[in-house]
Structures are given as C-alpha cells and as structure tokens.
Amino acid sequence: MDPDFHFDSQSPSPMSQAHWNIDSTMFQHEGFDVTYLPVRSNGLVDLERLASAIRPDTGLFSVMAVNNEIVPFHTDAAQALGKIPIDVDRMRIGLMSLSGHKIYGPNGVGALYLRRRPRIRVEPQMSGGGQERGIRSGTMPTPLVVGFGKACEVAMKEMDDGRRIAALQERLLKGIREKLDRMVVNGSIEHRYAGNLNLSFASKGNEKMGILRLD
C-alpha cells in the first residue's frame, strides 16, 4: 500500500479501555497517517463523524461493527463467531479476523477473511514459499486447522436464535437491579450481544458486593 494512504481506527469506549482491532502504531511507524475517532457515551460509533473523517486517500478503517460501502471494512469477529450470524456480503465486510479458541477450538490458530471482489490486497505476514496466495508462507499446522474447522462446524449447529441468551441477560439484570441500586449498564442495552453485560456499581466498598446472591 502507498504510505500516503489514510487509516481510521476506532477509539476505545470512554467507559472501559479495550484492545485495538489493528496495531495502529505499526502503521504510524510505516509512515501512514492514522486518525482516531471517539465513540458516543453508549460506546457506539458516530457514523456522521466517521463519514466526515474519510478522506480521498483513506485506505482502511477498522471498527468492531459498522456497515460502509466506500472503503475496505475490517472487523474483529473473534467474539462474534459462533454467537451471532455473520453475513460478509450483507455487512459489506472486506476483512475479518477470527480466532479458534473463542469457540472452544485449538489454541494458536485463527483465520483472516479477505474479500475477493473487489479484491483486498494485504502485505504478506511472512515471506518464503508463497503459500496462501503469497500472504502467509510456511506449512500450515494441519491438526490446528482441522480442529478449528470442526469447532466452526459445531458452533454453527449449536448457535441459537439469541432468545435464550437474551432471557438470561434480562433475568440477571433484573436480579441485580432488585438487590442493588445506583447500577449503570455500560454501553447500549439494545445494540449489543445479549451474552455481554457490562455493569458499573457505585458502592462504599467490596462488602456490599460480596454479599450479593442471585437465585
């Protein structure tokens, strides 16, 4: 890629620090211009602000979840795999990172989805024999690859429609609210995976939290 290309990356939520989807400092060291965009108080991306930040030389932006048809879109789907349906065409995903251990597959194996049309070009992770269309040279660890594939197959079969997880989330949230006051849900309660519930508590100490019991 041309070093004049411009990269946009999502800033962590102001409520909690999170790891970057991509190593943006690496791009900066390579001479790229990286722009960091803040998120709203509920953790969601301000799409108008994102649109205004896209320049003619923008080469990529990376967020956890957004739909855009102008520049390549990368998403870190490691936590979503096996939990929610992922349609790369409907979501206009250009690049997608996946990890095996998140779905009870082997440790040390993952996958990177690259859209073919329009074709996404990336720099090789390592050079050598030219395997994986020149993107990742070297012999693949067959047992890990097979294990990852099987884990994806099982996760696909066992993935529910979300209603059971949503009911459990509602039950947990209701139980906590009945026993503790001054509790805040971090992020949007509507636009989130039901299996994730991030809360903040205003209490005088750990004693009150320690005696919390839910049926």
UniProtKB/TrEMBL annotation:
It holds the Pfam family Aminotran_5. Transmembrane segments: none annotated. The keyword Iron-sulfur applies. PROSITE patterns: AA_TRANSFER_CLASS_5. The keyword Metal-binding applies. Its cofactor is pyridoxal 5'-phosphate. One of its GO terms (cellular component) is cytosol. It is an enzyme of class 2 (transferase). Keywords: Iron, Iron-sulfur, Metal-binding, Pyridoxal phosphate. This is cysteine desulfurase.
